[in-house]
Amino acid sequence: MKKREAKKTATAAKRPAGAKAAPEGGRWVHHEALRRWEKNPRRNSAAIPRVEASIRRFGFVAPIVVWRKGDRIVAGDTRLQAMRSILTKEPKFVARGAPGPGMVRAVFHDFEDEAEANAYAVADNRLNEIAEWDEALLGEVLLKLLPEDQMIVGYSPDEVADLLPSEPEPPAEFQSFDLNITTEHRCPKCGYEWSGQASKSSGPKSRRIESPG
């Protein structure tokens, strides 16, 4: 019992000051309490503006993964940089659901060592690159979003249009016809004959041929 309580005390001591439980998972911590991975090989500066827009629109949903013993970020560096970028412009910005300005969601994990923490960091990025989209289904999903949300999730109007099915093209040998051509018709049963145009605007001209005898 005493060992369990001691373990809880030690774990709590490693949490940043001011951390608050997040009902959706992880804990809310102030961004300044988190330390970035200095040797992070991922170059993500181009994605920061889009992630900023995502945080403003949806909130700080996905938590940052922190290696507890190493006291540094393992996954979520782009989200942290995006949040800090927002705060430089709006110091009092509060993400949806956050308890106060500058608070981000974080999960503290006990990786065995630095090699394992680094392996997870690479996997978190690389495995997403390997996955592929079903473009037809993706197009259906994007088509139902507002134009501004399409941009937030990373697709321009032209890119959305490219994902949608195009109108089928007629075969090259397909012969077209003028709807106003004159046609001749005859009823095979009564012998009634008429002539007219395919256009509905033209009234048919008809004549009846009497049966002989």
Portion in strands: 15-25%
Tell me, briefly, the overall form: elongated
Estimate percent helicity: 25-40%
Uncertain regions: pLDDT < 50 for 5+ in a row?
6-13
* Largest beta sheet: strand ordering: 1-2-5-3-4
Largest pleated sheet: 5 strands, mixed
How many structural domains in the coordinates?
3
**What's the alpha carbon Rg, rounded to whole Å?**
33 Å
Structural class: alpha+beta
State the gist of this model.
With 213 residues, the protein is of the alpha+beta class.
Give me some keywords for this one.
single chain; 213 residues; alpha+beta; 3 domains; five-stranded mixed beta sheet; three-stranded antiparallel beta sheet; 7 helices; 8 strands; 36% helix; 17% strand
Write up what this structure looks like.
Helix 2 crosses helix 3 (77-89) and helix 5 packs across helix 7 (157-163). The termini are far apart. The chain folds into three domains: 2-131, no CATH class; 133-165, no CATH class; 176-213, no CATH class. The strands form two sheets. A five-stranded mixed β-sheet has the order 1-2-5-3-4. Strands 6-7-8 form a three-stranded antiparallel β-sheet, with no helix packed on it. It contains seven helices and eight strands. Residues 6-13 have low confidence and may be disordered. By secondary structure, it is α+β, with helices and mostly antiparallel strands.
